[in-house]
């Protein structure tokens, strides 16, 4: 599939990106909208000197959320491993009977 150039606006600046599909384009556009929305929320709730401060806070929030998702995913993997081990133990005991 041929890549196409799109433009998204973040902090009142256009950024040109190369995307591979319409689905990928939608993801980038939605991400840019999320950033703009968060910047608007922060801008109305807190006093900031400039857009750079807003971008920094939005970036920090998204990074914290991303780390939280990774921790949950890691916990789920650990839980899955423990459940599989428990299942093996139960199978062994049931097969002995």
Q: Low-confidence runs (pLDDT<50, min 5 residues)?
A: none
Rounded to the nearest angstrom, the distance between the terminal CA atoms is: 58 Å
Question: Number of helical segments?
Answer: 2
Tell me the number of strands: 2
**Main β-sheet description:** 2 strands, antiparallel
What amount of the residues lies in strands? 5-15%
Q: Indicate the mean pLDDT.
A: 88
List the helices and strands in order: EEHH
Structural class: alpha+beta
- How do the strands line up in the largest sheet? 1-2
Roughly how many Å is the radius of gyration? 22 Å
Describe this structure in words.
- The protein is of the alpha+beta class and 97 residues long.
- It has one domain (4-96).
- It contains two helices and two strands.
- A two-stranded antiparallel ribbon has the order 1-2.
- Strand 1 and strand 2 form a beta hairpin.
- Helix 1 packs across helix 2 (51-96).
Write the layout of secondary structure elements.
Blueprint lengths: L3 E7 L2 E7 L2 H24 L5 H46 L1
Antiparallel strand pairs: 1-2
Helix pairs in contact: 1-2
How would you summarize this macromolecular structure in one to three sentences?
This protein is α+β, with helices and mostly antiparallel strands.
Which structural traits does this protein have?
97 residues, alpha+beta, two-stranded antiparallel sheet, 2 helices, 14% strand
């Amino acid at each position: 599939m041929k890549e196409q150039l799109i433009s998204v606006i973040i902090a009142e600046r256009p950024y040109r990106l190369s995307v591979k599909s319409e689905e990928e384009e939608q993801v980038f556009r939605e991400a840019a909208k999320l950033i703009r929305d968060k910047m608007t929320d922060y801008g109305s709730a807190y006093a900031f000197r400039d857009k750079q401060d807003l971008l920094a806070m939005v970036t920090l929030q998204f990074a914290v959320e991303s780390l939280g998702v990774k921790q949950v995913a890691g916990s789920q993997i650990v839980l899955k491993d423990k459940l599989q081990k428990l299942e093996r133990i139960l199978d062994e005991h049931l097969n002995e009977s």
